[in-house]
Amino acid sequence: xxxxxxxDGLIAILGHELGHFKHRDILRNIxxxxxxxxxxxxxMGMFFKSICLYIxxxxxxxxxxxxxxxxxxxxxxxxxPIQSYFSRKAEYKADEFGASCVSNKALSEALxxxxxENKAFPYSHPAYIFFYYSHPPxxxxxxxxxxxxxxx
Length: 152
Prior knowledge:
152 residues
């Protein structure tokens, strides 16, 4: 990465990561994850004994645990868009902070190089983004940065 990205680009990327620290994104993500886990366990606590009885299993701890292991991916998938939404918003703020360290152009060029290096597709369908993307697609990030217009 050091060979492919300019010094200004590296400073902009470092600024982006420091933007996460400045905006307390890590603490916010931990709090959101904790709330989501609480909701998932609350749902499990309210319904799993009934589900065990409905499908003909004894509501003992082992059966409830097996059912929880089978249902956790489904419940996690349902809550994933909430966490991804907040993560994408935080990325835009961190991009803004990173660009303020050097320039919009430096961060834009660095992001393009990173996407090219990772062979990532720069855009996806909005429904796919809604469920799976924790970071905004490259084209959306570049648009938020003003394309290649240097505002600084």
